[in-house]
Recover the amino acids of this structure.
């Protein structure tokens, strides 16, 4: 790989890791509690290849088709996370390749994933995507829907409920962003209180522009794309 690109990737990763550590330190958490998912949706394959030579990473793609293709092109040790909308007609093809699906955004999709997983003899780990901010442009369950349907949601047996995912509102207001992360955590804690069969452990929240706030509010998984792969000295 080009020495220059390798050096830039290493530097970006090391800066991100320092920022993760600093955010953790502010709230008395350990960086070991934070899983970094490197979002490669806009990153050319060659650069992803170089990245995984530096870091044993989990990679996130938002399109099932690209996830499947790249999981065949890249090393088998990559753990693939699906972070974008999943159409029902892609479920069968993508399930065998994913470590975690972040974007289960409706009861209909959940029911379909559960059925296909049963047929494929798989038990995929999933997160429910929740629209905490209430923005119309965002998909996901509303917190109210999750509460109302929780008995039905939590009864599916062919998936493993790992936790919840949200995207912060598109806003410059740190307070609004923080509120939405706090809301996700509160929802998880409420659901855990009323659930005996399993516990939701993961909170997937925080992207390049807001991951430090997310860590302060309890994120266990952060999804970072641009801060790792683009910037002033663009790698692409
Ligand atoms: C693209 C994307 C990210 C990463 O966004 P950046 O701002 O580039 O870090 C994270 N989560 C989801 C769901 C995405 O679609």
């Amino acid at each position: 790989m080009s020495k220059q690109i390798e050096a830039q990737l290493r530097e970006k990763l090391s800066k991100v890791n320092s920022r993760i550590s600093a955010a953790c330190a502010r709230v008395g958490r350990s960086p070991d509690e934070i899983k970094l998912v490197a979002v490669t949706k806009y990153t050319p394959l060659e650069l992803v290849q170089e990245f995984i030579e530096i870091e044993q990473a989990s990679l996130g793609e938002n399109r099932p088709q690209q996830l499947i293709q790249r999981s065949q092109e890249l090393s088998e040790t990559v753990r693939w996370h699906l972070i974008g909308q999943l159409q029902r007609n892609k479920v069968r093809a993508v399930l065998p390749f994913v470590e975690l699906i972040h974007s289960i955004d409706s009861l209909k999709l959940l029911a379909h994933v559960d059925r296909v997983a049963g047929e494929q003899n798989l038990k995929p780990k999933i997160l429910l995507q929740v629209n905490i901010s209430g923005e119309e442009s965002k998909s996901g369950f509303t917190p109210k829907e999750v509460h109302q349907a929780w008995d039905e949601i939590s009864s599916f047996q062919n998936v493993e409920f790992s936790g919840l995912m949200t995207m912060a509102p598109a806003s410059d207001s740190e307070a609004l962003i923080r509120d939405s992360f706090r809301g996700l955590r509160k929802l998880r804690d409420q659901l855990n209180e009323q659930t005996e069969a399993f516990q939701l452990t993961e909170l997937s929240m925080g992207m390049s522009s807001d991951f430090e706030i997310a860590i302060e509010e309890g994120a266990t998984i952060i999804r970072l794309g641009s801060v790792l792969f683009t910037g002033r000295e663009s790698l692409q």
In short: The chain has one domain: 3-229. The domain at 3-229 is CATH 3.20.20.10 (TIM Barrel).
